């Protein structure tokens, strides 16, 4: 595979993307924070299948981290990331510095009303403002035909879909399936923080989702009962601390009392000091 071209300024990135368009080629885009793994690889492969050229951004976005979060220690294995991009036949890697992305006088922020008030938005104030703003900026810079996001970050995906619609950002937003390791744990850059024992305990997130699915299959529709059962399962792990376990409408992110329609079951759990998220969705026909 040829090495991807590495671009570090917004202007050069836009010039490259415009050239792709001039050649009548479609462009797929995969935004990431680096520390790439097979889930990122699956997004890239999907983008390669559906487009003539693919760009990946690697940018640990400071504005989506809270003051007590892991921005400084977030892994940045740039050479390994480039190797993964090369192995997946990426055409361009956009890796700007924070200074290149954010003017010192930056004043414009994107907030997507209502969708950030629950789930991760509750426990990470300002997080989705940072996410929406950086994704809007990246889409303006890269101007892709299609942008690829994982369903692991279901709330983020919904916020991006609505933002792209509301701001006429003119690309198709493609949601991609959650990639899991054989033990059921959703692949994540943060899994590398886990000790062997914590990694074993991290299986409780997916196990709770499976328990919920089984109970829903068995006819349970009461959100409080389902959340209680999932909470009990998670709390069996000595190092697990529930941040939230929620059943919400998958379009509005608002809590449900009785499950109906397109339902998102999402949870965030701290295993030791590492905060992990996972989710599943189901469709429930009205009685
Ligand atoms: P990140 O680098 O963590 O910001 O993630 C970049 C993209 O990869 C986002 O759209 C994530 O939703 C997606 N992603 C990360 N982990 C997974 C996973 N296990 N399955 C599917 N998509 C994922």
Low-confidence stretches: none
The major β-sheet equals:
6 strands, parallel
Tell me the structural class.
Answer: alpha/beta
**Mean pLDDT across residues:** 97
How many helices? The count is 10
| Beta-strand content estimate | 15-25%
Total strands: 9
CATH superfamily of the largest domain: HUPs
Looking at the structure, what is the overall shape? globular
Question: Reading side by side through the largest sheet, how are the strands ordered?
Answer: 1-4-3-2-5-6
For the terminal residues, how far apart are their CA atoms? 54 Å
Helix content: 25-40%
- Helix and strand succession? EHEHEHEHHHEHEHHHEEE
CATH topology of the largest domain: Rossmann fold
| Total discrete domains | 2
Radius of gyration: 19 Å
CATH architecture name of the largest domain: 3-Layer(aba) Sandwich
CATH class wording of the largest domain: Alpha Beta
Task: Provide structural commentary.
By secondary structure, this protein is α/β, with parallel strands linked by helices. Helices cover 37% and strands 21% of the residues. The protein has 2 domains: 5-176, Rossmann fold (3-Layer(aba) Sandwich), CATH 3.40.50; 189-280, Pantoate--beta-alanine Ligase, Chain: A,domain 2, CATH 3.30.1300. The protein has 10 helices and 9 strands. A 6-stranded parallel beta sheet has the order 1-4-3-2-5-6, with helices on both faces. A 3-stranded antiparallel beta sheet has the order 7-8-9. Helix 2 links the parallel strand 2 and strand 3 (53-58). It is globular, with a radius of gyration of 19 Å. The protein starts with a strand and ends with a strand. Adenosine monophosphate binds next to helix 2 and strand 5. Adenosine monophosphate (AMP) binds next to helix 2 and strand 5.
């Amino acid at each position: 595979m040829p090495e991807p071209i590495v671009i570090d300024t917004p202007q050069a990135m836009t010039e490259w993307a415009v050239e792709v368009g001039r050649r009548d080629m479609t462009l797929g885009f995969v935004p990431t924070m680096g520390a790439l793994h097979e889930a990122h690889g699956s997004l890239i492969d999907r983008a390669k299948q559906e487009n003539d050229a693919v760009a990946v951004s690697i940018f640990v976005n400071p504005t989506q981290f809270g003051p007590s979060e892991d921005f400084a220690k977030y892994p940045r294995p740039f050479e390994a990331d480039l190797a993964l991009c090369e192995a997946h036949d990426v055409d361009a890697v956009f890796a700007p510095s924070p200074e290149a992305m954010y003017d010192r006088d930056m004043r414009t922020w994107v907030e997507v009303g209502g969708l950030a008030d629950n789930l991760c938005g509750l426990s990470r104030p300002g997080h989705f403002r940072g996410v929406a703003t950086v994704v809007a900026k990246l889409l303006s810079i890269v101007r892709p035909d299609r942008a690829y996001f994982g369903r692991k970050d279901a709330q983020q995906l919904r916020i991006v879909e609505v933002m792209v619609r509301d701001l006429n950002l003119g690309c198709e937003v493609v949601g991609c399936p959650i990639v899991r390791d054989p033990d059921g744990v959703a692949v994540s850059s943060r899994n590398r923080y886990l000790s062997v024992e914590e990694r074993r305990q991290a299986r409780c997130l997916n196990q709770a989702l499976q328990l919920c699915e089984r109970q829903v299959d068995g006819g349970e529709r009461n959100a409080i009962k389902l959340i209680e059962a999932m909470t009990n399962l998670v709390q069996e792990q000595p190092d697990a601390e529930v941040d939230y376990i929620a059943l919400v409408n998958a379009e509005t992110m608002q809590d449900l009392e009785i499950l109906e329609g397109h339902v998102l079951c999402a949870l965030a759990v701290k295993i030791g000091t590492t905060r992990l998220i996972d989710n599943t969705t189901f469709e429930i026909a009205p009685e």
